Each structure stands twice: as C-alpha cells, then as structure tokens.
Description:
By secondary structure, this protein is α/β, with parallel strands linked by helices. It is built from 9 helices and 11 strands. The chain has helices at residues 2-21, 47-59, 70-79, 92-97, 143-147, 159-167, 178-187, 215-230, 235-240, and strands spanning 23-28, 30-31, 35-36, 63-68, 84-89, 98-114, 132-136, 151-156, 173-177, 194-196, 202-211. Strand 7 (132-136), helix 5 (143-147) and strand 8 form a beta-alpha-beta unit. Helix 2 (47-59) crosses helix 8 and helix 6 packs across helix 7. It is globular, with a radius of gyration of 21 Å.
Amino acid sequence: xxxxxxxxxxxxxxxxxxxxxxxxxxxxxxxxxxxxxxxxxxxxxxxxxxxxxxxxxxxxxxxxxxxxxxxxxxxxxxxxxxxxxxxxxxxxxxxxxxxxxxxxxxxxxxxxxxxxxxxxxxxxxxxxxxxxxxxxxxxxxxxxxxxxxxxxxxxxxxxxxxxxxxxxxxxxxxxxxxxxxxxxxxxxxxxxxxxxxxxxxxxxxxxxxxxxxxxxxxxxxxxxxxxxxxxxxxxxxxxxxxx
Length: 243
C-alpha cells in the first residue's frame, strides 16, 4: 500500500506542471456561426473555435476552451481567470485594453432592418438619428459609431435576442456582423422580412486578446497563427463556414 501510494503521488506530481501550464481559453457562447454550443451540449463549435484550436495545436499549447456569455468572458480575462479570450473587435478602445493578436478573420459589420422601414441606405451616421438602433450590451462596433449620439437600445444580451427584437418590431435597426445576423434570421425563417442596408459600417477584423503586458503568450500565439496563415492551412476552415 505505501508503495502504491508513493507511485500515485509521483504520477500526480508529474501531471501537475502540465495542467498548471495549460491555457484557459474562453469565447462568446452566443456568437454563431463563429462560436456557439448546441443546447445542453457543452462542446464549443464554430469558425473561430476551429481556427483558435488549430493555432493552439500548431503552437503546441495545452489548453481548455470554454464558451460563456460575453460579459463573463471579458470579466474572466480581467480577473486572471483565463489566459486568452476571443473574439474581440479591433477598435482603438480594445487595443488600449488588451494585447490583441490577429486578426483571425474579418467580418462586415452592417445595419439590418425590416422591409417595412423606408430607409434605403445611409451615408452619414446622422441618417440614423430618426430611428431606434439596437445593439448588444457590452459590444464594441466601430469607434465613430460607438461615440455618436443616437437613440440606442442596448438591452439585448446577445445577437440572437437582438434579431428577435427587430422581428418583433421593438427596434427599427440593428447593427452586427453580417454572417452572424443572417444566421439568426435563418433560424427564424425570416429572410423575407429583413434587409441589410447596402453600405456596411465597417469591415471589422477580429482578434484574440491577452491581458495587457502578457507579451510572451501573445507572441507565441501570433507566431503560430502567422505560420498557418502563410501556409494557407486555415483556408479550408473559412470555406467550410461560408466566409
């Protein structure tokens, strides 16, 4: 018995450094098709999830990847409960807050409305002032838009809820990633009820984030990402998800 206990302790002590060195990676659970979960299935899925996993494998990093509500993702990174988080917009505000690495990809941030609204398009942000613009609480979109005075509804906690509010007539216009908004519209089989204004707000790059000053982890991830991008080894993931 003492010998078995000694061997058990020896094996456990050998495993602890590996576990301690693993990265805790977190992402948004409501950012389909980029990161999401099916019902009660805890398995992370999505375009960005697959890209992040591919980069971590390339870098030889042990990790645990979990998805949470976006507010909690930011909180976990701030409190040191995660080493890395994704997927952050590449705004000046975010670059000041975090060590951003990437981009993993880019996505068009657009305005969506229902076909009942007479607005055909927008040229200046002033064109949106007569309307209630819905956005997800805590999201950053584009610096000029984020700081512009508009009638905003930020009560939505995730993009799925934002789309539902638009379809219910609670808001006039919503803002978000084109691929993502259309994903939730298709869930509701409401393609004929909505339209996207032709002019996008911005083509927004998306990054992974580390706490400010964590340059060693940031550089390790960046090097692996660059190797995969240069070799074209991420292209199949992008194509499979329709990007």
